[in-house]
Amino acid sequence: MTTEIRVPQLPESVADATLVAWHKQPGESFNAGDVLYEIETEKVTQEVTATASGTLVEVFAQAGETVAVGAPVCAVDIASAT
After folding, report:
1. Is the domain 2-78 a CATH 2.40.50.100 member?
2. CA angle 56, 71, 61 (to 5 degrees)
3. SS3 of 12, please?
4. Among 12, 29, 48, 62, which one has the highest count of C-beta atoms within 10 angstroms of its own C-beta?
């Protein structure tokens, strides 16, 4: 099942962040808990981790871009439970 990963809620009413780096590339598999990407605000750098195992399908935002809270940054294919 393909799903979009969105920018998480940020602390203290921050509305956007800069996408700093991708830790996975399209076509690359990941496990639950793996870091997918990092975002940075004026106050904090935050690693965004996968909540389930799967494969990164497509990246919508590149490193250095400003992304808003709730904006989709990538699409992933979540592995089926076996």
Report:
1. yes
2. 50
3. helix
4. 48
- One-letter identity of residue 7: V
- Dihedral angle, C-alpha 78, 68, 66, 48, nearest 10 °: -40
Task: Please give the pLDDT value at position 13.
Answer: 81
Residue 82 predicted with pLDDT over 60: no
* 35-74 residue pLDDT tens: 999 999 988 899 999 999 999 999 999 999 999 999 999 9
Quote the CA–CA distance of 2 and 58 in Å, as a whole number.
10
Displacement of CA 36 from its chain's centroid (Å) = 5
Q: Which amino acid is at 34?
A: D
Q: Return all residues near 71 (Cβ < 8 A) that are at least 6 apart.
A: 6, 7, 61
